[in-house]
């Protein structure tokens, strides 16, 4: 048999597989930093011959495999269990990301304390804080438990030694970008280090059937820092959202092999830690008073949960040559499109006006079902006509001014009725003009 032909010299990107003749700090194909390595470091140079498959590992028809369901281990935090799909699955690897100061460590310390309160051993390794700092936060939040073990360590081998010594039932690493392996020459946080550390921790999680939660940093764009391989390796990817100036926090699943994706848990950051908010609709609508122009209520669908959210708009005259459009919690391009529809289909003149649109409570609306509510709030602010006190507006707006129905309409209506919103304005009115006329109070007579 002829000898295998070796690969030509060069470099390859471990993220996308792109090749280059020289080393590059950033891959020209996928844009990843620090992923271009020599071919010899990326993998073996020769082809691999087929190996004999043992009898106990032979491939079998899928119809003959047992359908074992994942066993969920409730954490005691209802909102977190909702996000995970019912609880923690033994052997699962979870990645929790979020901006600095949003409450990732506080939430996981509360999770560790809840699990430890059942008598289970929990190992919490902090590579960013000392054990005394974690202890102070645990005292403040009431998370002191005798079976909760703390360690401040950034060396991967020592962390694996802690796991062998403690033999925990839950392991938490804070954070993966600050843990380094001595077998990799690069600094902590580099893609090669993140890959090595993540692979080792996930391998331990699978071998020992140990549920593992890893905290990950984010970039300025809000993406998980490090190689995309990290998100592919773990079983669950969750993200903590919320404005640090407000107390409301949302935990959103972006990937879940054991449950629904895009599920949302609602928490409130208090002096005693993270508190569950089981009824976010009442929280968003708690301080609503007399009808005011520029406000409108819609019911948004987050995962399998319907939540009533108030949208506020402000339209102000300006002498600047380029009026501004400022948004908070909604997509600015979506607002610009709705302003254009209102100008073209309803002849509302937004020229020479600054437009401000915001959601209450830090809620982020990404679904098109909030289009009609945003348009109604904008028209209400421009015409100075408040919305009816018990109205709720639901629907997607097209460029031709038509209202399209949204998914889970019955669930949204049921949630609106539960919080006392009985006048539903939706796609049954067909056009934006008819819907806004139905949702707003009549114009006040001149002179008032």
Automatic annotation (TrEMBL):
Positions with a binding annotation for ATP: 98-105
Tell me any Pfam family this protein matches. Zn_ribbon_LapB
Source taxon at top rank: Bacteria
What GO MF annotations does this protein's record show?
ATP binding; ATP-dependent DNA damage sensor activity; damaged DNA binding; hydrolase activity; zinc ion binding
Q: Give the GO terms filed under biological process for this record.
A: recombinational repair
- What are the boundaries of the region Lon-protease-like? 354-448
Q: List, alphabetically, the SMART domains matched.
A: AAA (SM00382)
PROSITE patterns, alphabetically? RECA_2 (PS50162)
Where's the motif RadA KNRFG motif?
A: 255-259
Identify the residues that the record assigns to the RecA family profile domain, covering every copy. Answer: 69-218
Q: Which CDD domains match?
A: RadA_SMS_N
Q: Which GO terms describe its cellular component?
A: cytosol
Keywords linked to the UniProt accession: ATP-binding, DNA damage, DNA repair, DNA-binding, Hydrolase, Metal-binding, Nucleotide-binding, Stress response, Zinc, Zinc-finger
Q: Briefly state the protein's biological role.
A: Plays a role in repairing double-strand DNA breaks, probably involving stabilizing or processing branched DNA or blocked replication forks.
Question: Which family would the database say this protein is a member of?
Answer: Belongs to the RecA family. RadA subfamily.
Domain remark in the UniProt entry: The middle region has homology to RecA with ATPase motifs including the RadA KNRFG motif, while the C-terminus is homologous to Lon protease.
The protein here is known as DNA repair protein RadA
The taxonomy runs: Bacteria, Bacillati, Actinomycetota, Actinomycetes, Micrococcales
Q: Which gene encodes it?
A: radA
């Amino acid at each position: 048999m002829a000898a295998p032909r070796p690969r030509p010299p060069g470099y390859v990107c471990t993220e996308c597989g792109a090749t280059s003749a020289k080393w590059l700090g950033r891959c020209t194909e996928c844009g990843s930093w620090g992923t271009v390595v020599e071919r010899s470091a990326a993998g073996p140079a020769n082809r691999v011959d087929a190996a004999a498959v043992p009898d106990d590992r032979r491939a079998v028809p899928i119809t003959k495999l047992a359908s074992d369901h994942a066993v969920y281990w409730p954490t005691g935090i209802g909102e977190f269990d909702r996000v995970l799909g019912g609880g923690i699955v033994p052997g699962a690897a979870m990645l929790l990301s979020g901006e600095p100061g949003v409450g990732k460590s506080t939430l996981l310390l509360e999770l560790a304390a809840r699990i430890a309160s059942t008598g289970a051993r929990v190992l919490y390794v902090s590579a960013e804080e000392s054990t005394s700092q974690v202890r102070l936060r645990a005292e403040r939040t009431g998370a002191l438990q005798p079976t909760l073990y703390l360690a401040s360590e950034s060396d991967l081998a020592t962390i694996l030694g802690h796991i062998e010594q403690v033999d925990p039932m839950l392991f938490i690493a804070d954070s993966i970008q600050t843990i380094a392996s001595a077998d990799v020459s690069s600094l902590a946080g580099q893609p090669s280090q993140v890959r090595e550390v993540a692979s080792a921790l996930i391998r331990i999680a699978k071998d020992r059937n140990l549920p593992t939660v890893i905290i990950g940093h984010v970039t300025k764009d809000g993406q998980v820092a490090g190689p995309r391989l990290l998100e592919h390796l773990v079983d669950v990817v969750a993200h903590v959202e919320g404005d640090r100036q407000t107390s409301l926090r949302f935990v959103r699943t972006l990937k879940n092999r054991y449950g629904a994706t895009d599920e949302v848990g609602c928490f409130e950051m208090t002096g005693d830690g993270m508190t569950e908010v089981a009824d976010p609709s009442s929280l968003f609508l708690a301080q609503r008073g007399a009808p005011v122009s520029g406000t409108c209520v819609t019911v948004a669908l987050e995962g399998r949960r319907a939540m009533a959210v108030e949208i506020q708009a402000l339209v102000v005259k300006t002498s600047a040559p380029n009026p501004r459009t400022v948004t908070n919690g909604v997509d600015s391009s979506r607002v610009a499109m709705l302003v254009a529809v209102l100008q073209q289909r309803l002849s509302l003149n937004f020229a020479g006006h600054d437009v401000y649109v915001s959601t209450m409570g830090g809620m982020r609306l990404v679904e098109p079902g909030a289009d009609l509510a945003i348009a109604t709030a904008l028209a209400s602010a421009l015409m100075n006509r408040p919305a009816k006190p018990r109205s709720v507006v639901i629907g997607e707006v097209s460029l031709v001014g038509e209202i399209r129905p949204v998914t889970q309409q019955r669930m949204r209506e049921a949630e609106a009725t539960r919080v006392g919103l009985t006048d539903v304005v939706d796609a049954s009115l067909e056009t934006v003009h008819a819907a806004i006329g139905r949702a707003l109070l009549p114009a006040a007579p001149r002179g008032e």
